[in-house]
UniProtKB/TrEMBL annotation, chains A, B:
<keyword id="KW-0238">DNA-binding</keyword>
<dbReference type="InterPro" id="IPR009057">
    <property type="entry name" value="Homeodomain-like_sf"/>
</dbReference>
<dbReference type="InterPro" id="IPR023772">
    <property type="entry name" value="DNA-bd_HTH_TetR-type_CS"/>
</dbReference>
<dbReference type="InterPro" id="IPR001647">
    <property type="entry name" value="HTH_TetR"/>
</dbReference>
<feature type="domain" description="HTH tetR-type">
    <location>
        <begin position="18"/>
        <end position="78"/>
    </location>
</feature>
<feature type="DNA-binding region" description="H-T-H motif">
    <location>
        <begin position="41"/>
        <end position="60"/>
    </location>
</feature>
<dbReference type="InterPro" id="IPR036271">
    <property type="entry name" value="Tet_transcr_reg_TetR-rel_C_sf"/>
</dbReference>
<protein>
    <submittedName>
        <fullName>TetR/AcrR family transcriptional regulator</fullName>
    </submittedName>
</protein>
<dbReference type="Pfam" id="PF00440">
    <property type="entry name" value="TetR_N"/>
</dbReference>
<dbReference type="InterPro" id="IPR050624">
    <property type="entry name" value="HTH-type_Tx_Regulator"/>
</dbReference>
Length: 206, 206
C-alpha cells in the first residue's frame, strides 16, 4: 500500500495547493476518459487544468503516477457518492438500494469512471485489484451488519459481497454507461435489483 | 454485425484449414493473454502456433482482426462451457447453478479469458459490448423460461439478467482469476450464489 500512496512531500499543505491538485485530477479524468492512458499526455492534462507544465511535477512524477492517483481518487468518489445517499435510520436492505441508486447516478454523470478503472487492469493492475478488494471489504461489513440487525440472513460473507458488487457494476455498465432511450431510470433499476437482493428470483413457495 | 464476421473467402473449407485456424486462435489467446494487445505481435502468434508467417494472412488481415475473432471465439467457448454443463431435466435455478459452476471452472483453466475480453473494451469496443449484450440476451431467455416453468417469479427481464451476469463475472474474477489458497471451490461458490439467486439475502419473515 505504501508504494501507491502519494509522496509525502507532494501532498499539498495549502488550500491553493489542494485546489491545483483537484484541477489536475479532474483534467486527468477528462483526458484519460477521452483518449485512454496511452494516447493521453501530461501536456494535455496541464492544458485542460489551466496550469503550467512545471506545476504538474510539483504533484506527480509521471503519467503513471497521476493515473494511479486518479484511480484512488475515483474509488474514493464512488464511495463518497454511495455514503452520502445513506441515512442512519435506513435498514440494511434500504442501504443497498440507496447506495446502488446513488452509484448509478454518479456513473451516469461521470461516465469516464468505468473506462478509467477498467483501464487500470492493464496500466496499473495493483490499483485495479485494490479498488475492487476495498469495495468488496466494505460490502462484507454492510452484510455483517445486516445479519446482526436481523434485516439480512446470517452467515453472509465474501461470496455474497462479490456477487452484490458484480450486480452493481454491471447494472451501472448497462443503465448508466450504455444507457439507451426509454431505459428504466436509476430509481427503477435500484428498486428491481433490491427486490432481487432481498428475496431472490425464485418463485416463493407460499 | 456483418463487419465483424470473418471474411467469407477466409473461412477454412477443409479440416486441415480448420485445424490451422484453431492453432492460430489458441496461440493468439496465449500471446494476447501474456502480453496484452499492444505488445503482442503477429510473428509471435505464428511462432506459438508453429505455422509460417504467411499462413497468418490466409486467415486474418491484421492483429486487430485476429483479436476480434478471438473475442468472438472466447465468447463462444464461454457459452459452450455453460451449455455443456446443463442437462435437459434441470430446473431453471439448477441451470443457473450448473452454468456458474462450469463458468468458474472454465475461467480457472483459461485465465486469459478475462484479460482478453476486458482489453476488448479498449481495442475493439464493439466486440466488448457485443459479448455482454449477447450473454445478457441469453440470460433473459433463461429467466423467461424460468418464469414460464414456475421455478422463477414472473416478469423477470433485462435488469435481473444483467444483475445475474455481473454476479457471475465478479465471482469468476474473485474465485477463478484472483483465487487464493483456502478459497471455496467452484461448487461451493456456485452453491452460495445460487441460494442468493433463489431467495435473496433478506431474512425470511416466516
Amino acid at each position: 500500500m505504501a508504494a501507491s500512496a502519494p509522496d509525502e512531500k507532494k501532498t499539498p499543505r495549502t488550500e491553493k495547493g489542494r485546489r491545483t491538485l483537484r484541477k489536475l485530477l479532474d483534467a486527468a479524468a477528462g483526458e484519460f476518459g477521452d483518449h485512454g492512458f496511452h494516447e493521453a499526455s501530461i501536456s494535455s492534462i496541464t492544458r485542460r487544468a489551466g496550469v503550467a507544465l512545471g506545476t504538474f511535477y510539483t504533484y506527480f512524477d509521471s503519467k503513471d503516477e497521476i493515473f494511479r492517483a486518479l484511480v484512488a481518487d475515483m474509488s474514493e468518489s464512488v464511495k463518497r457518492a454511495a455514503r452520502e445517499a445513506i441515512a442512519p435510520e435506513m435498514g440494511a436492505l434500504e442501504v443497498e438500494r440507496a447506495a446502488l441508486e446513488a452509484f448509478l447516478r454518479f456513473a451516469g454523470e461521470h461516465k469516464e469512471v468505468y473506462r478509467i478503472i477498467d483501464e487500470a487492469e492493464f496500466v496499473d493492475p495493483r490499483s485495479y485489484r485494490m479498488h475492487y478488494e476495498t469495495v468488496g471489504a466494505r460490502i462484507i461489513e454492510r452484510l455483517e451488519k445486516g445479519g446482526d440487525s436481523g434485516a439480512m440472513r446470517e452467515g453472509l460473507g465474501e461470496i455474497e459481497a462479490w456477487a452484490l458488487m458484480g450486480m452493481n457494476v454491471f447494472l451501472g455498465l448497462r443503465y448508466a454507461i450504455w444507457r439507451g432511450e426509454g431505459d428504466p431510470d436509476a430509481a427503477e433499476v435500484a428498486e428491481a435489483a433490491n427486490r432481487m437482493l432481498q428475496s431472490g428470483i425464485g418463485r416463493s413457495t407460499d
